Amino acid sequence: MKRLTALTFCALLVLPLSAATPTAKPEEVGLSPERLERVNELVRRHLDARSFSGAVTLVARNGRIGHFEAHGLMDIDSGKPMQKDAIFRIMSMTKPVVGVSILMLIEEGKVRLTDPVSKWIPELKDVKVAVPQAGPPPPPAAAGGPPPAPRFYAVPADREITVRDLLTHTSGLGSGTISNYTRRAVALQGKESLADFIPRLGRTVLEFQPGTRWAYSAQDGFDVLARVVEIVSGLGFDQFAKQRIFDPLGMKDTFFYPSSGNPRMATLYSRQNGELRKQPDPNFVNGAYFSGGGGLFSTPEDYLQFGLMLVNGGQHNGRRLLAPRTVELMGSIAAPDTLPGRPKGESYGLSVRVVNDPMARNTWLSEGSFGWSGAFGTHFWVDRRQNLVAVVMTQTSNQEFLRDFENMVMQAVVGNGTVGGTN
Q1: What is the pLDDT of residues 51-85, one digit of tens each?
Q2: CA gap 291, 295 in Å, rounded
Q3: How many whole angstroms separate alpha carbon 224 and alpha carbon 123?
Q4: What span, in angstroms and rounded, lies between the C-alpha atoms of 354 and 346?
C-alpha cells in the first residue's frame, strides 16, 4: 500500500498542472467593482456596434483573478453564448512564447542575442537588402488581383541578421512591401514544415539594413526563431513549447492544431460593411507548420498562466522557467521609441512591446508594462509595478477596443499591489 501511494504521488508530479487560478473579490486585490463594471459597459457598446461577436475579459492581481467575464456569442449563426473556456486563435500572442523559448536557450548557453541566424540557417547568411527605385508609381492592381511589382534593386547587407534583430523586429525580414512581395515566390505550400520553408527565405530581400529601423515582421521573423528552437533543442517547436512551457504552467488548452469541430472554438469573423462575416483559418494552420509568428490557439485563463509567470519574475505554481533578471531584460527597452518605425511612448523589448512613456503613448498603462496582441482581437499585458496581468480575447480585429480595454482596466486599480506577485 505504501509503495502504491508513493507511485501515485510520483505520477502526480509528472502530470501537467491544472490552469485553475485562485479567485478573489475585486476589492481584495485592489480593484474597484464599480469601476470594473466599465469594462463590461465597454464590451457591451462594441457588441451593440457589431465590432465582434463576443469576448472574454480577465484581470488578475496579486496572483488571483479579480475579474473574469464572458460576453456575447461564440457563434452568431447558432446563437451559442460565449464561454470563459472558449478557445481562440491568438495569432501574434504566440510571439512572446517564442521569445521565452529563445530566452530559455540563452540561459542555457546554447544561443546568444548576438548570434547570427546563419549559425543555424546558412541560407540566411547572404540575404540582400532592397533599395526602392525612383520613378513613376506602378499601375494599380486589377480588381482582386495581386499587387503590382514594386521597383527596387538589391544590395548586400551591411551585416548579418542576429537573434536580437528577430526578437525586436529590426531585421527587415518580411517587414514591408518589397520584402513581402519577394516572399510570394517562396510561399508556403501544402503541409510543409518550418524545416521545409524557412531556408527559402534566403531568396527574399530585406526591407532595410538590419538594425536601422523597426518594422513588424508579422510571421517570418518569429517563424525563423521557432526553427532555431527546433534545431538547438532537437524538438519540434510544438513539443518544445508543450514540454518546457505549457505543461509546467498547467496550460492544458494551448496548442497549435485543435481537433476539427471542437465545440469550444470561437468562430473567426471579419468586419465588412458593418457586418460580421465568417473567415477561414490562415493557410499556415496546416497540421505541420508550427508558426512562431502566429500559430497558437489558447484560452484566456490558460494564457493568464503565462502572464503570471512573467509578472512573478519567471516562476509560477512552484515551477521556474526563467530567472528574474531574464524577465527584466525581456521587458527592457531593446528598440527605443526614437528608432524609426516605433510610436512615441512605446518601445520594444525582446518579443514584447514596452510602455516607456505613458503620456506620450496616451495610455493609462504603467511605465514598464509589457505585452503583445494578436491580429484577430486578442491582447495581454503584464504590469510588474501593479502586480497585474490582463487578458482579453475576441475573434475580430479592433485596435480601438483593445486600447480602451487597457484604460478601463487601469482606472479600476484603486488599491496597492505587491511587486513580484505571489506563488
Answers
A1: 999 999 999 999 999 999 999 999 999 999 999 99
A2: 5
A3: 11
A4: 6
- 305: DSSP letter: H
CA distance 421 to 423: 7
| 244: DSSP letter | I
**Domains of the chain (ranges plus CATH)?**
17-96+237-410 (3.40.710.10), 99-233 (3.40.710.10)
Cβ-based neighbours of 23, under 8 Å, separated by 6 or more:
64, 65, 66, 68
Neighbours of 72 (CB within 10 A): 20
* Residue 132 in grid coordinates: 526602392
Strand, helix or coil at 198? helix
Task: Extract the C-alpha cell encoding 36.
Answer: 470594473
For the record, the C-alpha cell of 363 comes out as 495610455
What are the tens digits of pLDDT across the range 365-414?
999 999 999 999 999 999 999 999 999 999 999 999 999 999 999 999 99
108 sits in the region (left: phi over 0; alpha: psi -120 to 50; else beta) called: alpha
